Amino acid sequence: MAKIVDRFLLFIFSLVVILGMIAILLFTFGVLSLEDTTSFLNRVYEDSATAAVLIASSCIMLILAGRFFYISVRTSSPTVPSIDQRTELGDVRISLDTVENLALKAAARTRGLKDLKARIKVDQAGLEVELRTVVDGETSIPAITEEVQNGIKSHIEEITGIPVSRVSVYVANVVQSAPAFKSRVE
Fold this sequence. Notes:
This protein has helices spanning about 1-30, 35-45, 50-75, 95-110, 140-160, and strands at about 80-85, 90-95, 115-125, 125-135, 165-175. The protein is α+β, with helices and mostly antiparallel strands. It folds into 2 domains: about 1-75, no CATH class; about 80-175, Cation efflux protein, cytoplasmic domain (Alpha-Beta Plaits, 2-Layer Sandwich). The radius of gyration is 31 Å and the shape is elongated.
């Protein structure tokens, strides 16, 4: 959410800067006359409403410029979600993408499953794996889901050493086989 707000604010900031640069170029090339420029500057000095609008917009632009400066110089922390483990030799970090790919690899070994998608969540008890799949319709769904649950659990625990607390399987559909049509030649 913060990235979307920052992108919108950057758009507004850039638009105002572009308009300001166009105004400066118009002044420089003489498109806007000296009388118009001095008239505007006199209104800024003499009219408090014009001065208030200019002061408020300048303060907003200064705050935005400070925000963007801060974003550009801050050190970024790793945003990739991972599981951290401490060993005698140091730290080990395993990304959730790695665990997701391990789950997909284990599920692909089970016959009768198509269009596999996995999502990994970290819980206090261990990892939670959510698998979405389409079945072929020729194998018992309870049997195939139990097989894939056991396969995913054992494969992830064996490879990563992280306990798997739950493996949920969502069967989205059955693969539709295309009917065989015979072409008719006349």
